[in-house]
Amino acid sequence: MKFLFDPDTWQEIYSSIRKNKIRTAITIIGVMWGIFLLVVLLGAAKGVENKFNSMFGDFATNSVFIWAQQTSKPFKGFQEGKSISLKLGDVVKIKNEIEGIDLIAPRSQSGGLVVRKFLTGNFTISGDFPVLNKIQNKNLIYGRFINENDIKEKKKVCVIEEEVYKQLFEKDEFPIGELISINKINYTVVGMFKESETIRLGDNIHIPFTTFQQVYNRGDRISWMIITGNSESDILQIEKDAKLILKNLHKVHPEDERAFGGMNLGDMFSKITEFLTGMQFLTWFVGIATLIAGVFAIGNILLITVKERTNEIGIRRAIGAKPWEIKRQIILESVFLTTIAGALGIIFGGLVLMLIDATMGKGPDAALTNPTVDIPVIIIAAVTLIVLGTLIGLIPAQTAVSIKPIDALRDE
Fold this sequence. Notes:
The chain is built from 13 helices and 12 strands. It is an alpha+beta fold. The protein has helices at residues 7-19, 21-55, 88-97, 132-135, 148-153, 162-168, 209-215, 235-249, 265-308, 310-318, 323-360, 375-402, 405-410; strands at residues 63-68, 86-87, 101-116, 119-128, 140-143, 157-161, 179-182, 185-193, 205-208, 221-222, 224-229, 260-264. The protein has 3 domains: 2-56 and 270-410, no CATH class; 70-99 and 232-258, no CATH class; 101-229, no CATH class. The strands form 2 sheets. It has a 6-stranded mixed barrel with strand order 3-4-9-6-8-7. A hairpin with a 2-residue loop joins strand 3 and strand 4. The chain starts with 6 loop residues before the first helix and ends with a helix.
């Protein structure tokens, strides 16, 4: 390793670079562009992945929403256009007969006039079970969500969205324990939550499901349901099975595709994951291909340099220089150029990612979130670059030592 600290070695490298400034600069730019492109593309891909993950961050991704609509086919004496209402019994049937279901939440919703002192507003009122908070984390700011005791005792309590608080409460006023009137019935505020910035269910105020059913005289009728599968289940199959059960229960034609609506988050998430995987593969392919092309450019430059220094190499060989000394000189020059180019590419790539984050990664409408590249990835890319630089340097190095001293001295 002593040769690494030999001033003569670095003097020769410097001399070689100085003689071919333009050629060396172009070569460095080629390699730098490769790792720069790799860093920027990987960072941007990570930013897009982070954005999609944040969209589903507070929601169980392996979920499907199902609601009732109207039939589009006559069946068993019922005409086309029959309206359907989901019931609590449907939820129990689905839960008991379909394997792979983790959580299921029946829900009821209605609009309502909400009053507090002299302030009013129209909001969506949802009747819910505590399980909803497991399916979608409600991001509580104060207090708690609906609990089992609220359901059992049909308590008149509510959990309000931050937007409701802003319209009905004074700034910095503590909402927990305060009363609000919903459709002329008083409820005690027990929690306040921040609505999701991505998947919005339209919830402004949550009250216990049993309280909702009693107050709005819903009986066992529900508005819709959310079904979440466990990690091993196929949420698409669960959706098909659930709709088939509902068709049998409500006497709907088996081929009627309009009777029950659905939105499958699991299917959406799966497609997004496949897209991200493909994008990452393309990013690595383009980045590494560009990187290799730049490294080969260094090899070609060094071959030209060896050709130009044939006479010098002949003299060194004639006065006793060993083949390995010639080889390591050229390999070291190759590694030096790739290392400098790689460092510049990583630095400029990081600066561009910071610029992208500052311009496109802020606010609720950001195209991507926190575009970064993991340190291990950078280390792997840098080591790969050095290894490639070493290997590509072997070609001109071998060419240099293969020239016989007498032939090199004759070269003009």
